[in-house]
């Protein structure tokens, strides 16, 4: 967690900081081959130079950004977990539990789906 220490230290709300640290630490342990990165002032993880998943902290939720394809692919499970989402992010309310099994599926999907991706973001399909 040393990599994200400065980011985490700047989260003023202790509950939000603890939850964010828990999620980032879980990913670091579960997916040791992913590279932690701070970009656009947000913690994220990459694989062979391509974006896999990112996070941001807001007043009401932890935002999870797996790119649109990850949200579309897991739309039903996101709703079943009790999360709401936009086209680009999933909102985990601070008082809701983190569905780590869903998070694992989303990350694994992105790793596999982007195995041959040579750009940071997916190329949008027309």
TrEMBL record:
Residues in YdhG-like domain copies: 17-111
Pfam families: DUF1801
SUPFAM superfamilies, alphabetized: YdhG-like (SSF159888)
Name of protein: Iron chaperone
Organism: Alkalibaculum sporogenes
